[in-house]
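[User]
Um, tokens okay?
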Amino acid sequence: MIMEVCRHLEAFDINAEDSILQQSKNCAIISHAPSAGTAREMLLKNEISSRFPNARIYEGFICSDEDNYQSSQLDFILCKNDAEIRFVNPHIFVEPEDVLLVTEVKTTLENKHLTDLDDLVLRIKSLRDGSDIKIGLFAYRSKMGQDTLLKYFGIEKDWMYGDIKRVDKIQFPNIDFLTILETNTSEEFRKPFFIGKDKDGLFQYHLSIPVINRYISILKSKYRYGV
């Protein structure tokens, strides 16, 4: 009975992931690129809000008077329930101490997005109260395949034997997590991708459907327990 319930929950997550991806593709009808990007951001926010109705999720800026810093505009900011938030609709301004998690949302992931995000994470975590913020990226698809993405985070995989090798060079060491729903659109089956840091700071990966529940697990941990 328990295993049957678990299968139903996994099926729910797979269907939710497929639905988000399909709706993202439907956004292609929007010719104005910024509007299409906003629509895809809302798909993710709506899914998270449906699972965590009381979560405080906004787009806006992290600001620190003490550090004389204001971030670039951030797509998805999960704030603490008791956070002090300054609204300049539709954006917010919030201090690092009131932020739990940040997610940048991309339609198609490119190398430059990872470079920019890694720099952003390094800067935010250097702020006085920024070190505990989880910061990562959610993309609907990627121009890069799974092999390339794994190597970016210090992992080489032997697909024939299933062996993995850790390499010393990690190109984007500051990013906490990366979720991609589709890494290869030329094949019959889409290839999802998730990678995130474990409690020891070591990158762990997940390459099968659904990957969205890996992302939600990180968000839930920060939202409920602050870790």
Q: What stands out?
A: The first strand starts at residue 56 and ends at 64. The two ends are 32 Å apart (CA to CA). Residues 153 and 170 are 5 Å apart (CA to CA). Helices lie at 2-26, 33-51, 111-125, 146-152, 212-225.
